[in-house]
Design goal:
five-stranded parallel sheet, 7 helices, alpha/beta, 7 strands, two-stranded antiparallel ribbon
Length: 229
């Protein structure tokens, strides 16, 4: 069984969904420490002036110092971020070829005001994967597993063993920190995914491959998965 373990992110880029596609089981690594300046609560969209961050505000006081896990980070619901984000997406992509196809779905999600960041980002990611046509992948949260211990790589392997995985698929940057020798010792093969994707039409030049999956979906609709796999 092929497995991917990744931290949940907000409207991730297409490389994230490539890993979802390749996995039989995709595990949201939601019980590790929240990284304040990572991708957990933000991503980029294209504008006529370049890329722009959409950031979900969180109650971040002490989350790094206290090593709060991702699944315990609360959204700051005093700020109308969901209205602002949806208004921004409609302004930027309202004329995109397939915006209307996804508008009802996103209207629903941005009409919500969830308490926890991971609840929102995970549910939206799963729904976007299904909209892309990725229907074979099962999803699980690491926080749903009990008794998982170990250092960085050891903990990953213990998660893989607990779900019966035989192959681990990882992004290329993990080559810098994974203790690769531990995988064959555990009877698990290791594959590094390659992020090499074709260009697709975008509303605002120059081309930027590092933006949210929504850019690709709004521009290519039912063909989006073909620009990933």
């Amino acid at each position: 069984m092929k497995c991917v373990i990744l931290q949940p992110s907000y409207i991730p880029w297409r490389g994230y969904f490539h890993q979802i596609f390749k996995a039989d089981l995709f595990i949201f690594y939601d019980d590790v420490q929240y990284d304040k300046h990572g991708w957990r609560n933000r991503n980029r969209v294209k504008t006529s002036q370049g890329s722009r961050w959409l950031t979900i505000p969180v109650h971040s006081a002490g989350v790094v110092a206290e090593k709060i896990p991702i699944n315990m980070v609360r959204i700051n619901r005093d700020k109308p971020w969901h209205t602002t984000h949806w208004t921004t997406l409609r302004q930027l992509y309202g004329k995109a070829p397939f915006f209307r196809q996804y508008e009802p779905l996103l209207t629903d999600y941005y009409g919500r005001n969830p308490e926890f960041l991971a609840d929102f980002t995970i549910e939206l990611t799963i729904e976007l994967a299904r909209q892309l046509g990725i229907v074979h992948t099962r999803f699980l949260r690491s926080s749903a597993l009990s008794g998982i211990t170990g250092s960085r790589t050891e903990r990953l392997i213990n998660i893989l063993k607990s779900v019966g995985a035989t192959e681990y698929i990882s992004g290329p940057s993990a080559q810098n920190y994974l203790e690769t020798e531990l995988f064959p010792a555990a009877g698990i093969s290791l594959e590094y995914i390659s992020y090499d994707y074709p260009h697709y039409p975008q509303l605002y030049p120059p081309y930027d491959p590092q933006v949210s999956i929504l850019d690709l979906m709004f521009m290519t609709g039912p063909e989006a998965l073909g620009y990933i796999i």
